[in-house]
Each structure stands twice: as structure tokens, then as C-alpha cells.
Amino acid sequence: MSRIDHLITKHCPEGVAFEDLCKLACYSDTRIDAADLDETNFVGVDNLRPNMAGKNDASYSANTARLTAFAAGDILLGNIRPYLKKIWLADREGGCSGDVLAIRIRKERRSELLPEFLYRLIASDDFFAYNMQHAKGAKMPRGSKDAILRYRIPVPPLEVQQEIVAILDRFTKLEAELEAELEARRRQYQHYRDTLLSFPEDANIRATRILNLGEVGNFIRGSGIQKSDFVDAGAGCIHYGQIHTHYGTWAKSTKSFIRPDLAARLRKAHKGDLVIATTSEDDGAVAKAVAWLGDEPVAVSTDAYIFRHTLNPKYVSYFFQTEHFQSQKRPHVTGTKVRRISGDSMAKIKIPVPPMEEQERIVAILDRFDELTSSLSTGLPAEIAARRRQYAYYRDQLLTFKEAA
């Protein structure tokens, strides 16, 4: 018998009481001046991280003079688009915007309910499914404050709560250690990528030439593909938006398909071409590229360019990720809300061009880093995903109780 089973048998063999959240907690009714806040203790909905990943320091200031105050142990819940699952267990005092709910255990119930245990109950797929079920609004759904407080939760004895929190904390700590290692590897990867794809001070080093992208290839604008054109099976296509969300450095298969007769009329990327998303609301994502390595040509949407060139395709795709590329790209990005870059502008960007054998050597090194830091089947991301599945399984098991009659 596990320690949890022993505690349940000892303290609540007939089940545990379930109560509406409103009987145990309420929304913070205290206020704080915006002048008393900084980036570390002001929480807006935009600096809460999706998928129950905590928060980042704020990059903007509060736009009202007085805000809802929160205290250590309060649970901050993003109330816009509940499906994003934004939640944080506060470890300090601060203030939050109106789109963030500060849930606080009632003073008279604090001897019965641990903030860490309540957080685990609310930071769960079951709660967010419930929250979405009661949310209002289509384009920008908002959680119902009344419905949230009607959410029923189990209240086992404190000894059981403490043991469950300790078990789940061990999973969280392991995942945090893996995330820190992955971040360190990513920084190392970025350093090597920028170093290997740098402009040599002496152009004779490695017989490297410095050329404009327009000297090594041609930029071809994609054709019209709408999301409504997608079908379950057919000719492969790459929509520019999927380059931001689906593809990495290279690809051999597509996420989407269109009718063959439509594909026949559209411009296509061939094996070895780059496909470049040329629009985004984020400057850093403008000109995100994927090397197409599939045997069959693929149709490419508007707001994307095909770059047909004479270099190693992965070499060029890796170069598009470097700070050397980004620093040259920034002056050419235009637009207001939607930012974009043209093929003519990209053609002016300079790239170091070593001999083909050197390009292949660099690609081999970067492929190993890319596998370690990006692959969902091997490397650290795969291990983190496995730990998350394990955590979710044990969380669901540990937080499931028989309700007392």
C-alpha cells in the first residue's frame, strides 16, 4: 500500500467532502497602486504563460492607477481565452490587470486547504474544460467568474493534501531541471550556429566568399492558397502560417494537402528550395524559413516566397536563423500591425558561402544540436514530453477522490 493509500484509509476511508469553490475561496477584494508595482510583481494576462507554465516578468506597465492586489498563495488565472490555460501560484505580493482573476482562500478556511493543493486542482485539464464550457464570447471567449466559483473540488485532510503536493512537486522539479538543461543547450546551439555561419574577418578563411542571396538564387512569390482549399488527401502544400507553427529547419512531408488540379496551377517548391514566410505580427518571425527536402514538389501560398538556390539547403535554412541574418533583415521589414519583407529586400542580404564540403560539415554539426533541442521523438524535448505525460497521469490519479455520502 502506498503512503497516499495509507493516509486515505486512515483519514477518509468513506471518501472526502466536495464543496463549491466559493465556499473555500473568493476573488481578491484588495487594491494596490500601480506606482507600487514593477515588472516582477505586475501581472497582466499577456505575461502569464500558456499551458500552466507560470509567468514571465511584465514587459509593459499597468494602464490603470489602481489594480487588484494579490498576495503570496493566491492563484492568478487568465480570464481571456481560457483554452490557453494561463495560471500562476503567486509567490509574492503584487497587482494584476482586470483580465486576471486573483483567487484567494478564505481566511476561515485556510486551516483546511493548502494553496499548493488548490492550485493543483485548478491547474488541471478538467478545470479548464469546465471553464471553457461556461465561457462567453466566440472570437475572444471570457471565463464566467460566477461559474468558476461554482466549480466543485475535493477537500481531503491536510495530511493527504501535503503528500499529494510533495509527490507532484517532485515531478515539477524534475521537469524544471530538464527545461533548464534544454535552455542551456539552446543557448549553446545558438552560439555555435552563429559562430559557424559567421562572416570571417579574412575572406580567404575556408575559401569563403561573401555574396548577396540574390547572387546565389532567385526569390519566387508563392501562389494563392486559402485555408478553405485544404483537403484530407491530395497534393502537398505549405501555407505560410504553418511555417510559423508547424515546421522546423527542414521538412520532407507537408501538414496539409490541396486538390491536385488546384496544385497544378500554383507555383511550387522543389527539393532543395527554401520556403520562407514573409509576414508576421512579430518582427523576429518575419522570414522564417524551412528547407523543402521532399521528393515531390509542393505548392506554396501567398505571403511566402520560394528561394531557389545553388547552396546546401539546410545550410541556407540554418543561416536564416542566425543573428547575422536577423540583423541584416531588420532594416527591410515594413508595415504596421502586419510586418513583412519582400523578395527584392531579401536578395540584398549577404551570406557567407564556403565550399560545399564545408557547408556539409557545418550542417552535420548543427543537425546534431537541432536533434537534441528540437526533436519530439529523441533528445531533451522528448524526455520533457514524457515527464509531462507522467505528471498528468499521476496528477489525475492523485486528485481523483470518492465523494463522501
What would you say about this model in short?
The chain contains 14 helices and 23 strands. It is of the alpha+beta class and 405 residues long. The protein has three domains: 1-16 and 157-180 and 360-405, no CATH class; 18-155, Adenine-n6-DNA-methyltransferase TaqI, Chain A, domain 2; 209-353, Adenine-n6-DNA-methyltransferase TaqI, Chain A, domain 2.
Secondary-structure blueprint of this entry?
Layout: H1 3-11, E1 17-20, H2 21-24, E2 25-27, E3 31-33, E4 42-43, E5 66-70, E6 75-78, E7 87-89, E8 94-96, E9 100-105, H3 115-122, H4 125-134, H5 145-149, E10 152-155, H6 158-196, E11 209-212, H7 213-216, E12 217-221, E13 235-238, H8 240-245, E14 250-251, E15 256-258, H9 260-263, E16 268-269, E17 274-277, E18 279-280, E19 288-292, E20 298-300, E21 304-309, H10 313-319, H11 323-329, E22 339-340, H12 343-346, E23 350-353, H13 356-374, H14 379-398
Parallel strand pairs: 4-8, 13-20, 14-19
Antiparallel strand pairs: 1-10, 2-9, 3-5, 5-8, 6-7, 6-9, 11-23, 12-21, 13-15, 16-20, 17-19, 17-21, 18-22
Helix pairs in contact: 1-6, 6-13, 6-14
